[in-house]
Design brief:
Blueprint (H helix, E strand, L loop, with lengths): L1 H22 L28 H8 L11 E2 L2 E2 L25 H16 L6 H4 L3
Antiparallel strand pairs: 1-2
Length: about 130
């Protein structure tokens, strides 16, 4: 009886482990809900809330390079995308010519687009919710 119980518990543990692994979501753009960046050491506000796919559907953004841009010689390359790279790979916390500092790059891109299209949050607390 005892051996049968042990086998049953082991079998259940294996089954739970397999199901957990199979049902575990893969981290991807769809899963992004806030703009976390480890480059910011001393935050004054929480990371900006940003449900990636929901945002792009609502804003009707079809091309990744609208936000994930690549510049060469000061010119934006239209058919290139920096998707998969951290913004901090090109933008530093402190400004280093010719790139904008990281916080300014985020604000110019996001807030600038919202102002240009007259849609979306533009005040601090609308993006950086506590």
């Amino acid at each position: 009886m005892r051996k049968r119980t042990v086998v049953l518990y082991i079998g259940m543990a294996v089954l739970v482990s397999i199901l957990t692994f199979m049902l575990m979501p893969v981290y991807s753009q769809e899963d992004i809900v806030s703009l976390q960046n480890s480059a910011f050491k001393d935050r004054q506000r929480p990371a900006a809330v940003f449900p990636h796919d929901q945002h792009n559907e609502k804003a009707e953004i079809k091309e990744c390079n609208v936000c994930h841009h690549v510049y060469e010689g000061g010119n934006k390359l239209q058919d290139e995308s920096s998707e998969g790279q951290a913004c901090s790979d090109c933008h530093n916390v402190k400004e280093v010519y010719p790139t904008r500092r990281l916080m300014k790059a985020y604000h110019d891109l996001c807030k600038g687009c919202h102002q240009e299209n007259k849609k979306g949050p533009i005040t601090c607390g609308e993006c950086h919710r506590k």
